[in-house]
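Sample intake sheet
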Amino acid sequence: MTIREELERREHKNLNPLAAFSDHTMGRPNGDVFRENDVRTCYQRDTDKIVHSKAFRRLMHKTQVFLNPEGDHYRTRLTHTLEVTRISRTITRALGLNEDLSEAIAMGHDLGHTPFGHAGEAALDALMPGGFQHNEQSLRVVDYLENEGRGLNLSYEVRMGIVGHTGSRIPETLEGQIVRHSDRIAYVNHDIDDAVRAGILTNNDIPRAITDVLGRNHSQRIDTLVCDMIMTSREAGEILLSPMVDQALKDLRAYMFETVYRSPVAKGEEGKAKTMLAKLFEYYIAHPEALPEDFLPQMSFEGLERTVCDYIAGMTDNYAVDKYSQIFIPMGWHVRG
């Protein structure tokens, strides 16, 4: 018996019957024959594939909420991803579900996010025929764009968890549903932390009706939401919050949209970011020869607009600024005497 088979047997012995067992996976798009000496389950392998991908490394230089903030302690897409992963694993473990699956989904859920956060997403959504959604782009990254255009060939359950972390499609597995909830728990709370750091609000500004339910600081709110989801889900046999806590979280999210997400401080540079990406999009449509060589074959089967969108969506904030500067900003020069 291989180590992988021992791990799979251990899952059946120790996990909740509602868990997604790794040896029951619906497989990978391109098939995958396990090596007899493999020491990892399919979901463990998927996490490793994601962590070693280029798209994952780029997350450290992509905006979460605050564009180009002055300070080292604001969240990025990468730190957001790590927080979602930790929250997901805590809930999954307490419910006896498959931690390896929730970890893989959480690690990959934002791989398709654009530079400049949701400002970049809105820009590409307006430019692309049929629109643009970062969850769909995340699936596209792992299916087609990574690994020199071959994709990462991830398990079905991980792929559907990634595309279902937001939007109308709900993941089929409980682990995927946990990541969907954990994403919201993470970003609402860490965005408060960043907003306090930016001087937009204080913890005392949050309405008393919300703090009386969720808590008055970051750790209290996270603890309340995680513990409530665990206890409520254990009783219900499905992933959900209690009605009172769920409503408080919805009210907190609405408060954040009103006071932070649409605030001049958080969105002061958003118009510039949208204009920058729109100009880059127009430029590469007019000059496809300027695209990197590894993107050029894609035009033959998916068209120029899709290829340009993939290129821009994969940019980090700084890379987008650099490309814009190279193309549109006159460079200094001098004449030799």
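Comment: The CA atoms of residues 148 and 294 lie 7 Å apart. The chain has a mean pLDDT of 91.
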